Amino acid sequence: MSKLSLGFDLSAVEPETGAPAPDRLIEGEPVFTTWNLEEAEGGIYAGVWQSTPGKWRIQYDEWEYFNILGGYSIVTEDGGEEVHLRAGDRHILRPGFKGTWEVIETTRKDYVIRL
């Protein structure tokens, strides 16, 4: 494969696990699994993220595009309406976004983040 091309081969990457910060957790015990496939100059990141059910507060300082690969989540901006996300849904969260992320069914997404 070209050095200028990168596929999404998760078997080639050691996944990282994590969870929401305790002060952001609202309910459940969600576990995050992240396969970081790319860290490029200029603060660009790409990969795949997965979470088990739970709900937590989110605050974005970065720009993120994502595509839901499976599962069911609800993202709600403070003072806004719920956005229901299922496989095939694509969404952008912009810097300054504040709200909640609730995973109803284990959710997997691929993403591109720009700091």
UniProtKB/TrEMBL annotation:
Residues 39-111 form the (S)-ureidoglycine aminohydrolase cupin domain. Transmembrane segments: none annotated. Signal peptide: none annotated. InterPro entries: RmlC-like_jellyroll (IPR014710), RmlC_Cupin_sf (IPR011051), UGlyAH_Cupin_dom (IPR008579). Pfam families: Cupin_3. Gene3D superfamilies: Jelly Rolls. This is Cupin domain-containing protein. It comes from Rhizobium alvei.
